[in-house]
Amino acid sequence: MHTIGKLLAGTVLAGIAATGVAIAPAATASATTTASVSQAGSSWDRFERGDGRFDYRWGKSGGRYWLDFKIWDRDRRDRDYSFFDVYYKNDGKWFFYKRYNTKSFLSKHIVFGKHVDDFRVRGGYGHNGDFGWGGWHFR
Hints:
Layout: H1 2-39, E1 45-49, E2 52-61, E3 64-73, E4 81-90, E5 93-102, E6 105-111, E7 118-127, E8 130-133, E9 137-138
């Protein structure tokens, strides 16, 4: 009787250990995949408007979206500036985040709050409130 109890306990422990070994690698692999996806960002995208050139890329890390962008104003001798507008979405509504401008070159890194559901950007070129805006570029 004592031998049967040891045999039964050994079988149960072996089954638990085998199941744990089978589950552990899968759990580790999915956690690694999720981490790499959330850390990964898009490749650089470029668009132009007037003499302005705009590069941007985005990603998500730690539950927050981030945005890197670069602005070039290729004609420094005129009166026009290159503008870059950033808007974010929260609970289905769009909100203005910030307008950036430059007469030469500007590069920024933005990390949005956890409440941000989406964001969009656009580039423009002009001066004194008279801008030629390009279309929206979405995440």
